Fold this sequence. Notes:
This protein is an alpha+beta fold and 92 residues long. It folds into 2 domains: 1-52, N-terminal domain of TfIIb (Single Sheet), CATH 2.20.25; 58-92. Helices cover 51% and strands 17% of the residues. The chain has a two-stranded antiparallel sheet with strand order 1-2. The longest helix has 38 residues, at 54-91.
Amino acid sequence: MRALQECPSCGGRAEILDFDVSGDKLWQVSCGKCGLATEMDDERAICIQHWNRRDGEEKLRTKVTILGVLVPLGMAMSFLVGLLFGLLGGGL
Length: 92
Ligand SMILES: [Zn+2]
């Protein structure tokens, strides 16, 4: 079994938690002190791996956050364009 590294944020002790999500078991590594946690994963070993490679994960998370902003923005744009065309069509 792989050992969990200490929390990269506060140096606190990490613990592995398991959740039952609609019949599936999901794992998450979480810091007992500051609450920093990995994404949930159905593979316990992958969860531990993610925690132990937390530095790289932070960069990944930034990309995900940017996507999370761009996607709704794109959807709002296409909605506005659709609305505009709808109005023009109705006027004719
Ligand atoms: Zn911590």
